[in-house]
Fold this protein.
Amino acid sequence: MARIVMVEEHHALDPVDLKIIELLRKDGRMPFVELGKKVGLSEAAVRRRVKMLQEQGIIKRFTIEVDEEFQVSAVIFLQFESSSLPGGIIEKIAKVPGVQAIYELTGRFDAIVIISASRISELNERIDRIRGVDGVKSTETAVVLRVIS
């Protein structure tokens, strides 16, 4: 199943745009022809709408979910240096391969990162890259043992 990451700011979307987004969330590889049949538009019209949604930043990227048997995931809790700007740190972390999501937090930790890799050694390398980002004061990592839902 593919996942589409959306920005917080919502542009004026009509019901057809919302249906396209819903269908792509379920299957990010669904052909435009099939999407068109499901929303009552031509392949070309669907292609234009998806392109517009991407250009407006509503659809940021297409990703795939791999069966958990073929990946290892972790949650990394981050604390930033007090003199650092979170936005710059988060931008750098987002470029690390395998980063699936970053959430800025209140409380003890400044952010959490959800990350995955195909093997523990690869996950370790990615965590080390995050630890090395300027402005990261400390990390606490929890490896995901099992996904419940």
